Amino acid sequence: MFRFVLMASLALSGAACSSKASDQQAAAASANSLSTASTSSATTASTSTVKTLPPAAAQAKATEAKTARGFARYSKKLKKEALARGYDKKLVDQVFASLTFHAKVVVADKGQPEFVETLDTYLPKRVNKQRIDMAVKMYQTHQTELKQVEQKYGVPARFVVALWGLESAFGRITGNYSVPSALATLAYEGRREAFFKEEFFLALDILAQGHISLKQMKGSWAGAMGHTQFMPSSFMKYAQDGDGDGHKDIWTNRSDAFASIANYLKTEGWQQGVTWGRQVKLPPNFDFSLVIPKGSKDRAQWLQWWAKSERPLSEWRKLGLTNIDGTALPGRDLKAALVMPDDKKGRAYLAYHNYQTLMHWNRSYYFVSSVGYLADEISRAQSSAPGAATAKKRG
Ligand SMILES: [Ca+2]
């Protein structure tokens, strides 16, 4: 489990990020970033005409030769279990007839990026100018729809757009794997069998409920689905029918995706009227024991450590902290905890309650920093746009 989780947070940040994402979101997160990275090579592996297979594809082929038969045996058992669990036989027949062993999934799951970087190298890549421009454009294009979602769920549209942009490049990169096949392959691989088997059965539930067809149920190699890159368990908990047509379609329906993202944040405690956090400057000789320590074993422990760091902005002000540009911290009566994703060397953030909510989505400082950064850039573009209503940063 540790390796998977570590791999996921590495894949996500491309860095030695010591915060570990939750199982579910680790899968979604790694799925997201790796789907982006590996889609093209996956396509290469399946479409190239054998002559000159690149090494990764060749390796994938080798794994396939070894284990496709094993997968078929595993699928038989899984099918029995599906029927025993009471799934409709027609659905079960249809899904199991479609199951394909994806050697590539196994290779991706075992792979570990070796590249180490910091937030300073990561952020400009992950939230580059192209992504910011696109986010601003999407924010404006879908303004009406986004405002409705903002009102209904109490979550600012800029955060919905930022998550949408980072998870699936605004719905453009959602993954090309058949989700049941990817999940069955990962269950068969065995290292996290129980987790992926449950996700597989939840995928069957989603199909049984008719939200999407089997053919359209596509996702990343790790089973993260659609515009939101939800794992099936997240779908069950947070997905919404935004346009009211009776289906929660996070794969092809933008309204459903927007509502689902906002509902996720609302469900996990988003506070209205407050932003996520802010980058700050520390005074000389700062007492670093006030920072949330790194390496928490789970969210519960991280929250405990958060509570120890958290204090009112006025107190942080007294301790000598300022905004990154040296100006005074806001006078608002808010509590914040101090986060340093790259320890003493790197950036420091005062994190508000909503930071916790974003860390529920994906327990990675790098991920949350990029969401906050992108959301702030959207807001900045709004307030600097000529004639645009000023979208003031609050908190
Ligand atoms: Ca719908």
Portion in helices: 55-70%
How many beta-strand runs? 7
* Mean pLDDT level: 85
The number of helices is 17
Number of domains: 2
Apparent shape? globular
- Spell the H/E element sequence: HHHHHHHHHEHHEHHEHEHEEEHH
Q: What is the CA-based Rg, rounded?
A: 22 Å
Bound ligand species: calcium ion
Q: Going across the biggest sheet, name each strand in turn.
A: 4-6-7-3-5
Strand content: 5-15%
Instruction: Please summarize the sheet with the most strands.
Output: 5 strands, antiparallel
Low-confidence stretches: 1-52, 390-395
Q: In terms of structural class, how would the helical and strand content be classed?
A: mainly alpha
The span between the termini is 38 Å
Topology:
Elements: H1 2-13, H2 23-47, H3 55-84, H4 89-98, H5 103-110, H6 119-126, H7 129-141, H8 143-153, H9 157-168, E1 177-178, H10 179-189, H11 193-208, E2 218-219, H12 232-238, H13 254-267, E3 277-281, H14 299-309, E4 311-312, H15 313-318, E5 322-323, E6 335-339, E7 348-351, H16 353-361, H17 365-384
Antiparallel strand pairs: 1-2, 3-5, 3-7, 4-6, 6-7
The chain binds calcium ion.
